[in-house]
Design a protein that fits this description.
Layout (H helix, E strand, L loop, with lengths): L2 H16 L2 H8 L7 H5 L9 E2 L5 E8 L6 H11 L25 H6 L9 H9 L12 E7 L5 E6 L5 H11 L1 H6 L3 E5 L5 H4 L2 H7 L5 E4 L4 H9 L6 E4 L3 E5 L2 E10 L3 E11 L3 E6 L6 H11 E2 L5 E7 L10 H10 L6 E5 L4 H9 L24 E4 L2
Parallel strand pairs: 1-12, 4-5, 5-6, 6-7, 11-13, 13-14
Antiparallel strand pairs: 2-3, 2-15, 3-4, 8-9, 9-10, 10-11
Helix pairs in contact: 1-2
Length: about 400
């Protein structure tokens, strides 16, 4: 991305976020729209119907959806540091803590304390950071394994995100056999949905087992994030997504959304799949762009079987802190217009939202509430869901 484009992106971030919490924070948290009537006022867009092929099925293994374990600690740390617009690398959270307290963190100082240990001695690195960080036991992480079946039966494996806590993610990887898959180079690529702590900061855990795995990131990554990729010991080929749609294999595409997100993060990528004879499957890390914008973009730009929305999976960013506002009910109602046949949700979707989906009669696939996941109303740690099988 050119410097001009980077500057424009940063100005757009500040402008969007500084509009005020009513507009900026809602956009940051994924509240793109609350009612379908808002869409009815927009001019009709001619559909481009880009053909990106088809696949037979997609199977998702939830490695970890528990990004943190205590909402009060996370929210309190952000509030104490100055609020939603504070640079995440200054929050003094592991692995970038320097022991100086709230809002006095530094990427350079934090990484200097552990750089020589990355990526091979992760336990020692995390133990060192625990002594310097605020609420060092709070981090968890978000990551899932995607197994995509071609029409000829070939299976392709991918990781979406790589979590946060080195300790938690290493244990989660071992629990699901991800460490062995990486060592044997069975996993073809790692997609980082966005630069947030709980999706990206656990990168050394992936790099420990495969330091050349192809990597995809949004072109809104900041200099600290790009430097971290190098400091982790990554030696592979990185693709910086700078187009709205990047085809991956037949039936699979990476979609790019430019949106300001809390704690000075910009942009998110999500995934779309065309499952033969079924229709469109959407998968997100956090969906900060909003469910409706995600669906609208796919509808306007992609060609998929039966012209039908089939499934959705991931963090859908509605009530991540388990709060609820009556206007969110309109968003739940609006989701019904797409007629999804299978819904797999967790993470920042929120337990309350999952319950609302179930009460609305949506086809939510429930989980088992194992490995510290808090609710059976959504797919928790270690749970699986299949689309098209």
């Amino acid at each position: 991305m050119s410097n001009d484009k980077k500057n424009i992106s940063r100005r757009d971030f500040v402008k969007g976020a500084a509009t005020g919490l009513v507009a900026g924070a809602f956009a940051s948290m994924g509240m793109y729209s609350y009612t379908s009537s808002a869409y009815n006022r927009l001019p009709k867009v001619e559909r481009k119907m880009q053909d990106f092929g088809a696949c037979r099925s997609v199977r998702v293994t939830n490695i970890s959806e528990t990004s943190w374990f205590n909402n009060a600690h996370l929210i309190g740390d952000i509030h104490e540091a100055g609020g939603l617009l504070v640079n995440q690398y200054t929050l003094n959270w592991a692995p970038f803590a320097n022991g100086k307290g709230s809002a006095k963190g530094s990427y350079d100082e934090g990484i200097a304390s552990i750089k020589e240990l990355l990526p091979n001695d992760l336990q020692k690195a995390w133990d060192l950071q625990k002594k310097l960080a605020l609420h060092p036991e709070n981090p968890g992480g978000y990551s899932c394994l995607l197994e995509v079946e071609d029409l000829d039966g070939t299976i392709h494996k991918y990781l979406l995100d790589t979590g946060w806590s080195y300790e938690w993610m290493e244990n989660s990887f071992k629990r699901e056999g991800i460490d062995k898959m990486l060592e044997e180079q069975q996993i073809e690529a790692l997609f980082i949905s966005h630069e947030h702590w709980d999706h990206f900061w656990g990168l050394p855990v992936t790099v420990k087992y495969d330091n050349r795995i192809p990597l995809y990131v949004h072109d809104g990554f900041y200099k600290e994030g790009l430097q971290y990729i190098k400091d982790c010991g990554y030696k592979g080929e990185m693709t910086i997504a700078d187009k709205p749609i990047t085809p991956i294999i037949p039936g699979m595409a990476l979609l790019k959304f430019d949106v300001p997100i809390i704690n000075r993060v910009f942009g998110e990528t999500s995934l779309a799949f065309n499952i033969k004879d079924k229709g469109l499957l959407l998968i997100s890390g956090c969906c900060h762009q909003g469910i409706l914008k995600f669906a609208d973009f796919a509808h306007a730009n992609l060609k998929y079987d039966n012209d039908r929305f089939y499934g959705i999976y991931g963090g859908l960013h509605i009530s991540p802190f388990e709060d609820w506002d009556p206007k969110y009910d309109d968003l739940v109602i609006s989701l019904g217009q797409w007629g999804f046949e299978r819904i797999g949700c967790n993470h920042c979707t929120g337990h309350l939202t999952a319950k609302k989906f179930i009460e609305a009669g949506y086809p939510v696939v429930r989980g088992t509430a194992r490995f510290r996941s808090a609710s059976k109303d959504y797919l928790g740690n270690g749970d699986k869901i299949s689309f098209g099988c």
